[in-house]
Structure formats: C-alpha cells, structure tokens
Design brief:
Metallo-dep_Hydrolases_sf, TIM Barrel, 566 residues, globular, Amidohydro_3, 21% strand, single chain
Length: 566
Amino acid sequence: MAEDLVIRGGTIIDGTGAPGFVADLAISGGRISAIGSGLPRGAEEIDASGKLVTPGFVDIHTHYDGQAVWDSHLAPSAIHGVTTAVIGNCGVGFAPVRPGQEAKLIELMEGVEDIPAPVLSQGLDFTWESFSEYLAALDRRPRDIDLCALVPHAAVRVYVMGERALALEPANQADIAAMRQIVAEAVRAGAFGFSTSRTISHKTLAGDPTPTLRAQEDELTGIALGLKEVGAGFLEVVSDFNLPDAATEFAMLRRVAEACGRPMVFSLTARHDRTEAWKELLALSNKAAAEGVNIRPVFPPRPIGILMGLLGSQNPFSGAPSYKAIAHLPVPERVAAMRDPTTRARILADDRISGSNFPLITRLSFERMFPFGDPPDYAPHRETSVAAEAVRQGRSPEEVAYDMLLANDGQNFLFCPLTNYADFTLDASAELLRHPNTIVGLSDGGAHVGFISDGSFPTFLLTYWGKERGVAIEELIRRQTGDTARAAGLTDRGLLRPGLRADINVIDLDALALDRPGMLYDLPGGGRRLMQRARGYEATIVAGSVTYRQGEATGALPGRLVRCAA
C-alpha cells in the first residue's frame, strides 16, 4: 500500500544534532514509517530538494490557555514551525476555578500576560471547575498544533485559599495538603506538571502581585510532592532571584527539586540591573546537573523587548494626558492630530510617566529605545538609539521618538529591550547557547498581544544564529525539537525516526526570513494582537497532515491535547 505522504529528497535534520543527510521520508497513519533513499511513491508527495526536513518545533513556554479555548489556529506559534506547545506557564491560568472567582484569574492573566480582560471575558465560557474538566474542554476543540498543559499555582492557590491567597498569606498545612492533592489529580488527568511565579513584575493592572509571590518553601515542597506521588510531570519556575540573593533562592528551589525528584526548569535572562546574575545562576544550574539534580534554565535567543507604537497598546507618550485625549482615535486620525503643532507641543510638555498605567514604563529609557526597521532589527547598535540620534540632531529624545512614531503614517514601532541586552550585544545568548544544560525558549506565544511579539523565536533562532552567526543548523534544530521534547517529558516526537509522530517542518533556509510585525483585530470582541509572519516554511505537518503550506493554513486541524502518561 502507498504511504500517505512522502517528503522527497530533502536534507534530513533529525533533531539529535547529528549532521544532516539527503533522504526521502515517508509517513503513514500519522507516524514516520521510513527514512531512506528511493522510497516508493506516496498518495501525496512534497518535493523537498534543497530544503531542510526537520522535526516540528516544541515550545515549552507559551500562554495559549485562553486562546486554545476559542481558537483552532494557535498563531503566531503555528506559523513559525511549532507543532507542540506547553501552556500554563508562569503560574497563571484558568483552572481550577470556583464559580465566582473567574474574574480574579482573568485580571491576573491580563496583568501578567497582557491579554485584555474583555477578550478573555468574551472568549472563555468557564464550563469547567476542576483542572481535569479544563483539560476536557481543551480536548473538545481540534487545532493546528498539539498542546500540553501545566497546572498554574496561582489558580490552585486561589481555589484553595480564596482571599487569603490574594492577600499573600502563608499557606497552612491543610492548604498545602489540598493543593498537593489538586496537582496530583491534575497530573493523573494528563497535566504535564506544575508552574509557579516568584517575580514582582507579575501583577494585575491594578498593581496587585501574583498570589504566589511569597509562597514559602514548605508550600512549594508540599505541592511538588504531588508530582512525586504520581511519578510524572515537571516544575516550571519564574523568579527574580532577588531575596536575599540569587544563590539563596536557587538553593531553596534546588531543595524543592530534590525533595520531589522531578525535573525543574526556570527562566533565565541577562538582566540590565544585575548584569552578572545570569552567570551565577548558570553556574549553579550546571553544578546541580552535574550532581544529578535536573534543573535547567530556559533562556531567550534575543532581547525580550517591547514594541512601542501607535498600533500597539503602548508608546512612550501613552501616559501623557494630552495623548490620552486622542488615544481613542483611529490611527490615521491620531497621526493627523499628533502632527498638529499645538497638540504636539502639549504632548511633549506633559508628564508621560506619572499618568501611565504601564508598570514597565519606568524601566524604559531612550538609551535603550531603537527604531525597529523593516526588516526588523533585534540586535540594534547602540549608536542607533533614540538618545544617540537626539544628540546627533541636537534635539530632545522625546522629539525624536515622537517623529519616529509618526513616520510611515504611524505604522512604525520602537524596539525597547528590557532584558538580555545589557551590554547592547547578544553575547549572553551566545554563551547560553554553548551550554548543554540550557533550553532555548521563553517565546510567550499567545501572550503580551499588544506590545511583545516573541512567538517568532523559533524562526529567529535559525535566521540570526544560523544564517548570520554561523551556529550549526543541526544544533539549532536540536535545541527546539529533541531537546525541548525531552525537557517536557515527550517521548513520541522531537526526532525524525520511524515509529515516532510525524510532526515535521520543510524549510527553505535560504528564503527563511521574518516579516515586520503588524496588528490584527481578530480576538474576541474585536481585540487586537501583534502578529509576525515568516517566509521560508514550505510546509508544516502535524500527525502526518499538512497544516501550513508557504505559511498559509490548509484547514487541516490534526492537533490535539496531549496528556502526560502518569
């Protein structure tokens, strides 16, 4: 019998890091059936001559918890070669939830991940209470990618402790026992683990911190023991590593990992205020790994930065009262108003900081604000900053930024790196790429829809680090296929081998490039979101079905909820 699909004559990059080789690849029944030369014809064929044939990408840090309920197309990740995504990161999500507590979880997701509350309120029907019921709701919708879900600490804590959780009160032993039971039951139902946040930057728009901020070691250990009880799942942690210092915080998290015996991952970026902290944490995690404790840092391949513009939810003048008076206008009318000399003078004279509702506004400076450009530039030179340009022109940085926003009829963005660009280079990411214990990730796909567009991390990894910086393509593919699948506990994908799931990308590496982000208005209630497309993905295949051709959806929806084998 003919194979369902044969990918003919491509360079096989199998996800192990091994050198690529030219071969055919056959698919039958949603799985890879053969890899070799001269395979018989299939019912469908793809000519991959001169192209790369890789496993589908596995992204372990996304936030499609809401979008997956109402949308079968999980862009932007799906259009950047991702075929499996892990949701429920950073301790935020929508289950478990008691009737009447839904708004609390929505407010937290809105503040932490910049997904507007009206969008979530309209898009989520909350037909669930327990986490297993939430998984069942996810299971009912077909999609273009597979999903794995983590149990979010904030939702569990609010479910058990109510207002006490929101007041950051310590959990008592009864609370801890109840949370452990909920997490264990969720993993038995198919959750891939548990996530928590210990960072002060995770707040509601009202400024209230995440309920998990001050969770004590006994609480984290007690919950983690739920994973040990089931014998499955991993822990995902976000922390500032501030109090009292990075080593002390890491030592506490290491004790939690040792107590439960389950893998742990944590977010690691090169901070701009503590420029050496990432090196200390890298050394500590490497030491733990060498001593048999599975703790791995997850790092971004480029700066995590805000795109500020008139199209998005934020720009440098969003907090200025005179700007707020015209902020409701459509972009063309707003541009016309901002070009009026009187309005311009008023906006430039206003206090743009104290009136802002954007918590990160105080961390933005014109020294780290750059014209984004087309094609987009994620590694801008220091001398191209708004501040440097202002010095050259003999004007204020505010005036220069203002005019940059108005150029191209208000379609432009300013790129503001918040982390991972302390010395105006990507040297930190380059160093982290060299360490076998690190994981490439933190795309936050599905989140920060109004001012961050990092779902394109997988494409950037190949275009910048592969094509521009010369890192071996085989290693870059391994980094986001076999390695991330293993980190998540997925054993049936991430590699090109007979018998494994046929999640595959066919990539024209020479043509691979990132487009400039734009704004879509397709969220529930007409909500907006940044969307960045790419060129060069000839085909993306999920479970043997072609879901995208040349970046366009085919209509096939073979994606499913993946349940952890507890």
